[in-house]
Specification:
The complex is a heterodimer.
Chain A: H1 13-17, H2 24-27, E1 33-39, E2 45-51, H3 53-56, E3 61-65, E4 96-97, E5 103-109, H4 112-121, E6 123-128, E7 165-173, H5 176-182, E8 185-193, E9 205-210, E10 216-220, H6 225-235, E11 243-246, H7 264-273, E12 277-280, H8 283-288, E13 295-304, E14 310-322, H9 328-341, E15 348-357, H10 371-389, H11 393-400, H12 422-433, H13 435-438, E16 441-443, E17 449-458, E18 469-475, E19 481-485, H14 494-506, E20 513-516, H15 534-561, E21 568-570, E22 574-577, E23 583-585, H16 586-592, E24 602-607, E25 616-625, E26 632-642, H17 649-668, E27 699-703, H18 726-738, H19 749-760
Parallel strand pairs in A: 1-12, 10-11, 14-15, 19-20, 26-27
Antiparallel strand pairs in A: 1-5, 2-4, 2-6, 3-5, 7-15, 8-13, 9-10, 9-12, 13-14, 16-17, 17-25, 18-19, 18-24, 21-22, 22-23, 25-26
Chain B: E1 2-7, E2 10-15, H1 22-28, E3 47-50, E4 53-56, E5 69-71, H2 77-89, H3 99-112, H4 118-124, H5 136-155
Parallel strand pairs in B: 1-5
Antiparallel strand pairs in B: 1-2, 3-4, 3-5
Helix pairs in contact in B: 2-5
Amino acid sequence: MSYVNQSVQKKDAKALVTGQPVYTDDLAPADCLIVKVLRSPHAHAIIEEIKTDIAKKVPGIACILTYEDVPQNRFTMAGQTYPELSPYDRLILDKHLRFVGDAVAIVAGENEKAVDKALKLIKVKYQILESVLDFHKAKDSEILIHPEEDWEAKVPVGADNHRNLCASGVESKGDVEALLKECKYVVEGTYHTKANQQAMMETFRAYTYLDHFGRLNVVASTQVPFHIRRILGRALGIGASKVRVIKPRIGGGFGAKQTSVAEVYPAIVTLKTGKPAKMIYSRYESQICSSPRHEMEVKVRLGADEKGLLRAIDIYTLSNTGAYGEHGPTTVGLSAHKPLGLYRNTQAYRFTYDVVYTNHMSAGAYRGYGATQGIFAVESAIDELAEKIGMDPVAFRALNVSREGDAFVGYDGSPVVTSCTLDECIAKAKEMIDWDKKYPCYETEDGKIRGVGAALAMQGSSIAGVDVGGATIKMGEDASYTLSLGATDMGTGCDTILAQMAADILETRLENIVVFGVDTDISPYDSGSYASATTYVTGMAVADACRELRQKIKELGAQILDVPVQETEFDGQKVYTLDGEREISAEEIAVKGTCGNNQSLHVTVNRSSEISPPPFMAGMAEVEIDRETGSIEVVDYVAVVDCGTPVNPNLARVQTEGGLAQGIGMALYEDIQYNEKGQMRNNSFMQYKIPCRQDVKKIRVEFAPSYEKSHPFGAKSIGEIVINTPCPAIANAVYNAVGLRIKEMPVTPEKIAMGLLEKKI
Amino acid sequence: MEIKFKLNGKEIKAEAEADTILLDLLREKGCYSVKRGCETANCGLCTVLMNKKSVLSCSILAVQADGQEIVTLEGMQKEAEEFGDFLANEGAEQCGFCNPGFIMNVFAMLEEIEEPTEEEILEYLAGNLCRCSGFVGQTRSILKFLEYKKGGKKEV
């Protein structure tokens, strides 16, 4: 019996496909107060005066809160383990407003109409300040986004609020300048990725109420229940023990919900009024005041020797964290660590970075988490370098990629490559797209041109030495099992794949395992579902918990049989003596567990990993371009992924397909833009286009599994890596098709048409 | 004002203000499968059937439902389970938030086109966004479902 590596259906599938009420807003009590936030119309301003007296008179209004009414504890909304690397730079409500959409006041009322009316009746006098909208001009600007004295960076990350610096630093190995001088082939380029919205279908939301102990209960669509508990405890000044967080089903996260975007607003309303309250973000709010991808500009210099070996890599990343520093100091690291880790022959590298505050909305965590930005830059530059050498870009990569057993250069997650089939991924992807025949391009019958482009990617599997996975497994009186998790299934299926692992170790049927998650009062601590951690570290915790439970079952069985435990074995059905003489069924042991028993059939395990073994992949795109109009279509996208053992191949495949589609969106359409007043231009799905099914007609995914020995089933992560190849692969394909190197995402028809026009001149 | 309409096979009466949208009224009536994903009629999450044709319940006033027949996924549980099995077999239901609107539109499509081609499927369902699956798994599930339906008919 084996479930791991089998495509079983998700345990919650039936509820989801029949539309059961399992999400936050479906569960909120009907008499919840409706909470909304008055948003700043200015990119940078100070509230001089705020009058709420008339607004408060609107019938049905329960409370209106301004900065004068809320605790003044600076905190970060970033859902990270304590001490957070993100600075404590927020207040629930602040007099100082730092972007269009920043919170000015909180209004709660019995119905939406009353709240909307009250919002309009709040009178605010703003002192408008000059703003910093161009992130190139932020560092050492005279305009300070965070001049406040109580601004605090908990961890030394090179932050300085008096320089608009959220983080800065330099890491290096060897003398990169000297080596670049020695290199026969050197390329240099600056690559710009924009802020993008995760655009999960369910917007940010939470509802709150006080329980019979007077504790604040928070039902939230979040990836990080335990962090939310700590964040709210701090922000509200009540301490984490007064907060309970429950996660129901989530309508997608992609990192967006690794930040406490919405929870604090209903929470403070419930504390102030004693009444249940809910905050449901509109799509408009989810667009303008949330936690998108960090805009980054990555300057890359690469050097190769006469043999075509990649010897030197110099990376400077400028990252735009916006008004607040959520995930600013951490995302930037991945922009170098992940692309560096892909290549084995690097003798010297340098990575320099600045993360700056601006008057844009705060950035946050988005699938890929900086790696996506850095990989776009490096994988574009790799193609340029290969061309300079006169090599096929795929052959150049194959010559230089990391292989199993190599020491990693520049990757901070693991010292050595413990599992890797990247060479196989490349070969397979090449074959799938018919690279040798199509590279660089060919013309179609109707005069369009098709080009192919390639890119590699890696990510990590958890944050080494930081992330904690937790699992509790207990045997019930009917010999069924309950698996409690602190990891958050956000639709990806972790409840199911972790149960698959548990079923295999306990040698039981998958249906015999009930999965529960997440309630911070009941679930074991887990740092949460982010950083590609769940399959890997929570998987370890599940496996170890189940192994320990097996031992306990055996011990209780041996005790009942009155034989030494070492003379028995458990096969999932029964404990039996090795001589085959006697046995006792799992059911009988389970019943014994409930009566006259001193042996608990209940195990909780927490696990962390000292290494973060990366998954690897190769992505190749075929694009079709109309040279007259610049119109571009991705006609085929192939990906071959090494995620170790795919625990559930179907779910791993859909992760990959979904990540590729999101990446194609980033490569072709998605681009958060601000006007000169700092107002976001694309504040709805009408202006912010995400791919529809006609945009991603053909995506083909294969696996080339390695076996990661540090994981009980040889698995690595899959969730994030899959978004990293489309930007560079598509940009490379465009170059191979029409000779135009696009260094700023997204690749729009306008950029292609204008670029081709300029080239002709 | 008071309106009367048929909701999932039952005649019901409801109070609706002039600016109440159908989406809000349906959720108020316990049809929680109907989701809101945007305010601009772009996402397709709130798709329901009005007189057997798919409509966006965010773009229909509740009063327009007066005298009409409305069906949500709550009214098509058996069908949802049958098709949903194919969706889940691909793992393409994922977070599930777009599922009800998507599935309702699949039913509307099959009502309108008996054997849609892949191209027709992509076109018909273009307004149903999904951010998790990348769509291709959804398409596989529809094609396999159609295959099964064809086989089923033959057996009968």
